């Protein structure tokens, strides 16, 4: 019986090391966090595989609960700010770029801690287009400054 408990404890420690930001004290909370993380990873795999197969419209339904705007905390005026504008101005964008140069795993963990994930641009545009067509707002493409 003791050997079985030791094996379970060892495997729990191994799980804690694999999952970012797990609660180290309470096993029940830790297992909930691990399950949530596995669900997140499964969704990411599904999103990426569906986008590869050309199912961008279906993917938009999967991730349609992603907010397109957030309340501006810094201004205090309650103004709405686009999510990507907030993340661009709070240094997240630069931090992710730096992490991607150094350690892609750390970059993925950082993005996950901010409730973000990487996806192909074509998929992001399809989701964006689907979301705005449902809202009835015209879609303005972002200017391409590559020239």
Automatic annotation (TrEMBL):
Superkingdom of the source species: Eukaryota
Alphabetical list of Gene3D superfamilies matching this protein: Helix-loop-helix DNA-binding domain
An example Gene Ontology molecular-function term: RNA polymerase II cis-regulatory region sequence-specific DNA binding
Cellular component terms per the entry's GO annotation: nucleus
Pfam families: HLH
Keywords: Nucleus, Transcription, Transcription regulation
Subcellular location field: Nucleus
Domain BHLH: 1-41
Protein family membership: Belongs to the bHLH protein family.
UniProt cross-references to PANTHER family, sorted A to Z: DEHYDROGENASE, PUTATIVE, EXPRESSED-RELATED, TRANSCRIPTION FACTOR BHLH83-RELATED
Name by which UniProt lists this protein: BHLH domain-containing protein
């Amino acid at each position: 019986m003791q050997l079985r408990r030791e094996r379970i404890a060892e495997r729990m420690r191994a799980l804690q090391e694999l999952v970012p930001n797990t609660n180290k004290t309470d096993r029940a909370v830790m297992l909930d966090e691990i399950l949530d993380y596995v669900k997140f990873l499964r969704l990411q795999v599904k999103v990426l595989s569906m986008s590869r197969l050309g199912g961008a419209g279906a993917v938009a339904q999967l991730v349609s609960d992603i907010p397109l705007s957030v309340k501006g905390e810094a201004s205090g005026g309650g103004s709405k700010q686009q999510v990507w504008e907030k993340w661009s101005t709070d240094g997240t964008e630069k931090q992710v770029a730096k992490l991607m140069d150094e350690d892609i795993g750390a970059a993925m963990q950082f993005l996950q801690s901010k409730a973000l994930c990487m996806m192909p641009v074509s998929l992001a545009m399809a989701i964006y287009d689907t979301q705005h067509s449902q809202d009835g707002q015209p879609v303005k493409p972002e200017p391409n400054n590559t020239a």
